[in-house]
């Protein structure tokens, strides 16, 4: 049996397990919002951000009259929160008040009780450290939660997602350089039909460019996310703070994280809207569409092994069927594309969340940040998995690529300048209808000489613009 202590709030007394640092408001949230699945817990990066912000606030508040003894105890407790040493004491789910008030109070209560413990006091007494008067000094949930949303988003993007994109890009570049050295020419495809040739390296260079643009788009969204709402308090006016408090908080968070955070120039916008997160996730949505295309292409190019395109050989990581012996599936491609579909779904939720700012406060904050951080995490993890378990071990099936290239009727395109589009079309259609080669069809129709055919139909001359000759 667990032992309990009594915690109090404005509604009265609440029984809380004695070994838990949270207090009355957290306990009430657990009772009132039993919409609880493990994946619905407030994301870990938010808890870390709470620790950073509460520690920064204690530092600044000591400049505005907070007892240094209390302030230093808050700093120590907040540091433990930021280091995730107290993660088990943050049990709340995202399905709560839309301002994130319960989670803000969860942080206040945990830090308060831990600070009381550090100072040798009695947990639950709110003495000498009060969760509202001291930990939440000069703050409101309405400016605190959007601030931790931005801190968490920036830390995940800069420390996790962007490095994962760059790592995948590097792996694709290594593979592209390998294909370039092999001088592999293959048939291109448009509308899922044969088209003119290109090199395998050229095809993969398109994937690299997509990732380069993805990095650029995400990085362009970072400056807005580095703007912090702290100091706006309840509705953006800054009531119960002091002049310069907002800038001091941003400076301290910058010092603690090494990231160029600044105070938001307009606190009314910072509390009531989350356009910066909607825009930033739009870049993640675009990344998801890019990754979907890349994974889908590789999946199709690796189809087979005997009855598909078979131009690429994908690593064999695990058995693929419970009934068909020896079958191996493109599982990394499938996993990545499913992740992309989820991110695209998250975009819809975040868009709806961003729309729900009524007057001075957006009230879908937990939904927005939960889906944002979900996207950053699954994109990061899936790209790392895709790189390690597929891209690194990817190889070209040179003989199959060459065989398909020689069978393509679209090599006829290089005859256009010599015999014209209409005659070239007749050559291709005749070859397709009779099941003969382009050369045989051209000779049959007397479209050009055999010598001219061999001079013109050379795939290696079809992979770039020709030099103009007068």
From TrEMBL:
Listed EC numbers: 4.2.1.2
Keywords (A to Z) from UniProt: Lyase
Top-rank lineage group of the source organism: Eukaryota
Domain Fumarase C C-terminal intervals: 411-463
GO biological processes: double-strand break repair; fumarate metabolic process; malate metabolic process; tricarboxylic acid cycle
Keyword Lyase in record: yes
Domain annotation Fumarate lyase N-terminal: ranges: 12-345
Top EC category: lyase
Keyword Lyase: yes
GO CC annotation terms, alphabetical: cytosol; mitochondrial matrix; nucleus
Single annotated GO MF: fumarate hydratase activity
Family, per entry: Belongs to the class-II fumarase/aspartase family. Fumarase subfamily.
Known function: Catalyzes the reversible stereospecific interconversion of fumarate to L-malate. In mitochondrion, catalyzes the hydration of fumarate to L-malate in the tricarboxylic acid (TCA) cycle to facilitate a transition step in the production of energy in the form of NADH. In cytoplasm and nucleus, involved in DNA repair in response to DNA damage: following DNA double-strand breaks (DSBs), translocates from the cytosol to the nucleus and promotes DNA repair by catalyzing the dehydration of L-malate to fumarate.
NCBIfam families: fumC_II
Entry protein name: fumarate hydratase
């Amino acid at each position: 049996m667990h032992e309990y202590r009594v915690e109090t709030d404005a509604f009265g007394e609440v029984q809380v397990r004695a070994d838990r640092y949270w207090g009355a408001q957290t306990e009430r949230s657990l009772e009132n919002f039993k919409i609880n699945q493990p994946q619905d817990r407030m994301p870990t990066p938010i808890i870390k951000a709470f620790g950073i912000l509460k520690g920064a606030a204690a530092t600044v508040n000591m400049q505005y009259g907070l007892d240094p003894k209390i302030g230093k105890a808050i700093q120590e407790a907040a540091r433990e929160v930021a280091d995730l040493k107290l993660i088990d004491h943050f049990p709340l789910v995202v399905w709560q008040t839309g301002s994130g008030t319960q989670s803000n109070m969860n942080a206040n209560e945990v830090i308060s009780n831990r600070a009381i413990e550090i100072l040798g006091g009695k947990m639950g007494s709110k003495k000498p450290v009060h969760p509202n008067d001291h930990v939440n000094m000069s703050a409101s949930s309405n400016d605190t939660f959007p601030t931790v949303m931005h801190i968490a988003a920036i830390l995940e993007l800069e420390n996790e997602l962007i490095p994962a994109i760059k790592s995948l890009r590097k792996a694709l570049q290594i593979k592209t350089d390998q294909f370039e050295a092999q001088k592999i020419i293959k048939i291109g495809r448009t509308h899922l039909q044969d088209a003119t040739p290109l090199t395998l390296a050229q095809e993969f260079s398109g994937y690299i460019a997509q990732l380069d643009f993805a990095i650029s788009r995400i990085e362009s969204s970072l400056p807005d996310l580095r703007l912090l709402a702290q100091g706006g308090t309840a509705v953006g006016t800054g009531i119960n703070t002091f002049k310069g408090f907002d800038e001091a908080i941003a400076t301290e968070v910058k010092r603690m994280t090494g990231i160029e955070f600044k105070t938001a120039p307009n606190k009314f916008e910072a509390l009531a809207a989350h356009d910066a997160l909607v825009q930033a996730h739009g870049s993640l949505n675009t990344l998801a569409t890019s990754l979907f295309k890349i994974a889908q292409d590789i999946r199709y190019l690796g189809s087979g092994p005997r009855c598909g395109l078979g131009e690429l050989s994908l690593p064999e990581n695990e058995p693929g069927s419970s009934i068909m012996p020896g079958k191996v599936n493109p599982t990394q491609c499938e996993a990545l594309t499913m992740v992309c579909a989820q991110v695209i779904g998250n975009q819809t939720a975040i868009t709806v969340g961003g729309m729900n700012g009524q007057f001075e406060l957006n009230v879908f904050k937990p939904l927005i940040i939960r889906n944002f951080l979900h996207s950053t995490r699954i994109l990061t993890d899936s790209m790392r998995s895709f790189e390690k378990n597929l891209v690194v071990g990817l190889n070209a099936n040179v003989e199959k690529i060459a065989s398909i290239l020689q069978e393509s009727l679209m090599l006829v395109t290089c005859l256009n300048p010599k015999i014209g589009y209409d005659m070239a079309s007749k050559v291709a259609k005749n070859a397709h209808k009779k099941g003969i080669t382009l050369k045989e069809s051209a000779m049959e129709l007397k479209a050009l000489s055999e010598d001219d055919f061999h001079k013109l139909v050379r795939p290696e001359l079809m992979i770039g613009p020709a030099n103009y000759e007068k």
